[in-house]
Design goal:
- The protein is an alpha/beta fold and 257 residues long.
- It is built from ten helices and eleven strands.
- Strands 5-4-3-6-9-11-10 form a seven-stranded mixed sheet, sandwiched between helices. Strands 1-2 form a two-stranded antiparallel sheet. It has a two-stranded parallel ribbon with strand order 7-8.
- Helix 1 packs parallel to helix 3 (41-49) and helix 5 (82-90) packs parallel to helix 6.
């Protein structure tokens, strides 16, 4: 028991050496990790000193109604993105088929598969490592999702009622949070002021959406106007932006007509 307390003290001291008292919430999550005392304390302290994201140190993270394994091969699921899931769940949509582009951990596709258990749900990612983690998370969450290793629509052959994507949308020249250096660059940054991947997704979407289908995109608040115009130019109507948990307009959706 004393040895366990010494481990907790060592971890707490390492945390406060790195963060002071500015991030007590992270320490709380870490100290409440189920298998913390079975792990290599020296390794944990090193990761803390690097200011590695708490999600990667713990190795899993809650998102909406599920828990997801995470590592540096995938983007960390953000609570802001839960707004996307919540909006779709609370809408009157009843999609029979769903495509998630750039699935990462699989969290969006998996949560939507729970909400719409009768729907066919496909999810794609360019990273084989991400696909591997997503498959593990689908099994962990007892979700029926088909995963494809694909560069956006490259290996997609069907049409869907709903396309959802949280693609890379950060400008490579942006002054980003230091913690992002631990996450995969290809899941965060995009060329053309952060718009390259969003342009590809929008411009090709009508070939993969059923008539009357919906596309739902995450983007930076600064890109909202451009995204709305791109959707309208590509045949989408009722184009609408909604706010995330921080009250910034981070999501835009439209109906193909």
């Amino acid at each position: 028991m004393k040895n366990n307390q010494n481990k907790l003290t060592t971890i707490s001291d390492a945390w406060r050496n790195a963060y002071g008292k500015d991030y007590e919430e992270g320490l709380y999550f870490l100290l409440n990790t189920n298998d913390l005392l079975e792990r290599d304390v020296e390794r944990i302290c090193f990761e803390i000193s690097e200011k590695r994201p708490i999600q990667y140190i713990i190795g899993n993270w809650d998102f909406y109604n599920g828990n997801y394994e995470v590592n540096s091969d995938v983007l960390i699921p953000r609570p802001e993105t839960e707004t996307l899931i919540e909006h779709i769940e609370n809408s009157k949509l009843q999609p029979k088929s769903i495509l998630d582009l750039g699935t990462g951990t699989g969290c969006i596709a998996i949560e939507l598969s729970k909400i719409f258990p009768k729907a066919t749900v496909d999810a794609v990612d360019l990273s084989l490592k991400a696909i591997s983690i997503a498959k593990t998370n689908a099994k962990k969450n007892n979700a029926n999702v088909r995963f494809l290793n694909s560069n956006w629509y490259q290996k997609v052959s069907l049409k869907y009622d709903l396309i959802v994507s949280n693609p890379p949308y950060v400008d490579k020249s942006a002054n980003t949070n230091e913690s992002l250096k631990f996450e995969p660059e290809e899941a965060i940054f995009s060329d053309e002021n952060g718009l390259k991947d969003l342009r590809i997704i929008i411009s090709q979407s009508k070939d993969y959406l059923n008539y009357g289908g919906i596309i739902f995109l995450e983007h930076s608040p600064e890109q909202k106007k451009i995204i709305k115009n791109l959707l309208k130019k590509n045949g989408f109507r009722a184009v609408t932006s909604i706010k995330d948990l921080k009250r910034t307009e981070r999501f835009t959706f439209g109906k193909l007509e």
